[in-house]
Design goal:
By secondary structure, the chain is of the alpha/beta class. The chain has a domain of about 190 residues. The chain has 16 helices and 9 strands. It has a 7-stranded mixed β-sheet, sandwiched between helices. Strand 6 and strand 7 form a beta hairpin. It is elongated and about 85 Å long.
Length: about 400
């Protein structure tokens, strides 16, 4: 039973498989591979339902079928974020970055200790690495430990040395360590869009639903007397990300501590709602934000919903990669159509293009660290061979 657990959605097999894929899959075929696996993970019932229920809250009045298709977009962007993070870790492939709220980022970079509050959007790891490199500041990244023990051990062995990573397992000891870090001038990065583990919460309203959010960032900001900077990492295309910062949140200290926390949490959720509504396909929250019995409030007025919206350019710099990947799948389907019905060829093509990569990576080149170039030439050779075979049988 322990062996089979590694193949569950949160099991270690998928992290190992991702690392293997990063070292073996050529970039130009990557969109087709990710498209297949994003569709495959729609079979993950709990995650799919969680995303669809959250979309119902984010987009009131949306249809279930439309949210099912939107769910695929969420999985698609999540897969790309994992792939980009893996390529950065293993091959130091650094994406292109654009910035919104430059003045807030500059204040965060040049000031003293501060708290960077973010959400499960884009790549948390990539954003932390970028800010550590451009700011030259010590970054303390707080995150929840993996649920699966094997996955936790695998990920902790691969933690980067440039960033101090802490896990929110020991609340009191961690709180003291973070307080000392902030007072020493470090930036503490925390994800504040959902509860994870046995941590203290603060009541808030998110998309008209009563929720609890982590109280730690607000307690730390109050104790250290430092601002909270809302910062979000949003994927904008092939190896392209937007680092979006909002106005800092000051946690005012008064005699009513709960009211102070509630006011700060309200300002945070206002920013969080705006960012998620702008890029709902980037919010990787696979658990519902509220119980099924709760219904979200109605849609906000258009003027309020559009306030502060960031519309970065959507033109994808990796158009060539997408075109090559699509062309390869189409040609593979055409070749397969000579041996099976066209509808079956379309379905099988997505799987067929992956088989040579698995064979090469598992059996022929298992000791190489980077098989990307070799596998790229193998795929091209197979395509040319198939073309010659089809032409030869046609005459």
């Amino acid at each position: 039973m322990t062996f089979l657990r590694r193949f569950l959605v949160r099991g270690v097999f998928w992290r190992q498989f991702l690392r293997w894929a990063v070292l073996n899959v050529p970039p130009w075929i990557e969109p087709a591979i990710i498209a297949f696996w994003a569709a495959a993970f729609l079979l993950w019932t709990a995650g799919r339902r969680g995303v669809m229920r959250n979309l119902t809250a984010i987009l009131p009045g949306s249809w279930p079928l439309a949210n099912f298709l939107r769910c695929y977009r969420v999985f698609w962007n999540f897969a790309w974020s994992l792939s980009d993070t893996g390529r950065f870790r293993e091959m130091r492939v650094i994406p292109q970055w654009t910035f919104a709220g430059q003045e807030h980022l500059e204040a965060l970079r040049s000031g003293g200790g501060a708290i960077l509050l973010t959400a499960h959007m884009g790549s948390y790891d990539l954003g932390a690495h970028l800010f550590a490199e451009v700011s030259g500041r010590r970054i303390v990244m707080v995150r929840a430990p993996e649920v699966d023990p094997q996955t936790r051990e695998f990920e902790e062995r691969r933690l980067p040395d440039a960033i101090d990573t802490q896990f929110n397992t020991d609340g009191e000891a961690l709180a003291l360590d973070l307080l000392h870090a902030v007072r020493d001038g470090a930036i503490v990065a925390i994800q504040g869009d959902r509860m994870a583990g046995q941590i203290a919460g603060v009541p808030a309203t998110l998309f008209g639903i009563d929720v609890e959010l982590p109280a730690g960032p607000f307690a730390l900001a109050m104790a250290a007397r430092v601002p909270i900077y809302p910062v979000f990492v949003v994927r904008r295309g092939w190896r392209r990300y937007l680092l979006r910062a909002a106005q800092p949140i000051e946690v005012v200290r008064s005699r009513d501590r709960d009211a102070d926390f509630a006011a700060a949490a309200g300002r945070w959720t206002a920013v969080l709602e705006r960012v998620i509504r702008d890029d709902w396909q980037q919010w990787f929250a696979f658990e519902p934000v509220a119980p099924a019995s709760r219904r979200p409030a109605g849609r906000r007025p258009a003027a309020q919903a559009d306030a502060g919206r960031v519309r970065a350019g959507r033109r994808d710099g990796g158009a060539t990669v997408y075109i090559l990947s699509t062309l390869y799948v189409v040609l593979t389907a055409i070749f397969l159509a000579h041996a099976m019905p066209w509808w079956a060829a379309i379905l099988v093509a997505q799987i067929a293009i992956q088989i040579p990569i698995y064979i090469m990576g598992l059996f022929i080149l298992p000791r190489w660290r980077n098989n990307v170039t070799v596998n790229s030439w193998v795929l091209v050779a197979l395509l040319l061979g198939a073309a010659i075979w089809v032409c030869a049988t046609s005459f």
